[in-house]
Amino acid sequence: xxxxxxxxxxxxxxxxxxxxxxxxxxxxxxxxxxxxxxxxxxxxxxxxxxxxxxxxxxxxxxxxxxxxxxxxxxxxxxxxxxxxxxxxxxxxxxxxxxxxxxxxxxxxxxxxxxxxxxxxxxxxxxxxxxxxxxxxxxxxxxxxxxxxxxxxxxx
Length: 155
Prior knowledge:
Layout: E1 7-14, E2 19-26, E3 29-36, E4 43-46, E5 49-54, E6 59-64, H1 68-99, E7 115-117, E8 146-153
Antiparallel strand pairs: 1-2, 1-7, 1-8, 2-3, 4-5, 5-6, 6-8
């Protein structure tokens, strides 16, 4: 295991690269930093555990959850952002095609921060029913998608 305690796992949109990411920090160390691609699959390997392979990072990530419900929620969000990644890739390709055409102007740059949280807060998975802190903050920070045990290993 990469972490022996519950950690926050969040989905982000990286506007610089026009990609969606799954990121988890244990303190200041990134234990998950995975770019979601349209060909990825999240597999439920047991009632409370699931995993996905990130071929770019040559890593298989696994998450253990405290309940089947939380695993299902994570799997639903994974599928949602996998589809969003597919659409973002298509949109990015369209922008590239437009940029190569002399009659088209390049789209204006985005003013948002490079990493933007894309998930609303969900309940903690640490045995309590407390809702995650959603206090506004001027810094771009993740909204927890799931708190779970993270496991990573290279194939």
